[in-house]
Amino acid sequence: xxxxxVFQFLGEQWLLVMALVATLxxxxxxxxxxxxxxLSINEAxxxxxxxxxxxLDIRDAGDFARGHITxxxxxxxxxxxxxxxxxxxxxxxxxxxxxxxxxxxGPATKTLRAQGFDRAQKLSGGMMEWDAQKLPVVTx
Length: 140
Description:
Helix content is 47%, strand content 11%. By secondary structure, the chain is α/β, with parallel strands linked by helices. The protein folds into two domains: 3-34; 36-132, 3-Layer(aba) Sandwich (Oxidized Rhodanese, domain 1). Strands 1-5-4-2-3 form a five-stranded parallel sheet. It is elongated and about 60 Å long. The relative contact order is 0.17. The mean pLDDT is 90.
């Protein structure tokens, strides 16, 4: 495919191209707003170690059992609304929300912040990134 054909397509289908760009822009903005603050693994570990926070793993029980961060608190995303009391001792401490890939943690983080857990943040990349960096996990 030559560059000339690409430019020809862009010229002839400019309306479709603009619609695609607008859709992608809205998607990126929506995901960014929904997700809230994100931490790298190094930032998260340092924050937890220095300030006594907790990793909150919101994956399902099977994924959690296959491997999770040491001392992570397990509350599946579906149960979070019913189990805020378990997080009360961390209300003023960092809560780093962990999911499989870093996407499900965004809505959970937003929910926690709405409930007054102002220091809740998501782990960028989730457990997939944790595993990719070959960091230790606990299995059951």
